Amino acid sequence: xxxxxxxxxxxxxxxxxxxxxxxxxxxxxxxxxxxxxxxxxxxxxxxxxxxxxxxxxxxxxxxxxxxxxxxxxxxxxxxxxxxxxxxxxxxxxxxxxxxxxxxxxxxxxxxxxxxxxxxxxxxxxxxxxxxxxxxxxxxxxxxxxxxxxxxxxxxxxxxxxxxxxxxxxxxxxxxxxxxxxxxxxxxxxxxxxxxxxxxxxxxxxxxxxxxxxxxxxxxxxxxxxxxxxxxxxxxxxxxxxxxxxxxxxxxxxxxxxxxxxxxxxxxxxxxxxxxxxxxxxxxxxxxxxxxxxxxxxxxxxxxxxxxxxxx
Length: 311
Prior knowledge:
Layout: E1 2-11, E2 19-27, E3 31-35, H1 42-49, E4 57-62, E5 65-66, E6 77-80, H2 92-101, H3 108-118, H4 131-143, E7 149-153, H5 161-176, E8 180-185, H6 188-194, E9 197-202, E10 205-211, H7 212-215, E11 220-227, E12 241-247, E13 250-256, H8 259-266, E14 271-277, H9 281-297
Parallel strand pairs: 3-8, 3-9, 6-7, 7-8
Antiparallel strand pairs: 1-2, 1-4, 4-5, 9-10, 11-13, 11-14, 12-13
Helix pairs in contact: 3-4
């Protein structure tokens, strides 16, 4: 079952880019990462799912219901925005009880449980809280009704490392209970830690949707070469090489493909040192960005791996 289904979603703004022909399917119980730099279109996609903005074309559904035509689906949704704003004079507990009243259920026990996990003082006024503690209020507010779908938009900004880990543990626990997680971030290490599948978005377009296990499999390697003399960059002008950086007698790059192919190119280089490691998600992400840019410069090349409709 698809909890979220986005088909050919396009949002045009008068003076700025939104999203273009976005296609995503997120399955029940999945922890799905939505990755891209600031301004790539992540928040536009999320605001459409929340029914806060209308698409120019295309559709977005949650639990099989159109997000615009059926606002009642939001009762099963928990949302944590990148920035939170509240009435300063309210006490934390009063604010959370007020939020709970929209769901017509007693969430008092749940509020106390979440506040204990996040080390949040329910008696304080909003005005007396730091930005990080206001973010904790947002976390409790988004989870107090035990939503079936949790949408996180840059969720850890303002949290110290200890609270970040507690937050990740909390989200993992909600996922084990059955909640589906849609996790938007530009911090790739967070997504690498949490998600089972990811989509990369660039300039409003999905350039790749992939399983995390596939991204991290052995087909990707990070090479670091230190030569006794200069390294000829032309030797590495082969398919699968990206992120190539050369400085003095040292070269580094990402390679995807048969490792024997790249070893043949290296074999006649006089080396002082060589290291071959697993790349992290950020380096893989840049591999796809570089690939997309090359495809746009060479339109005759096969760019099926960056098909925005791929799932």
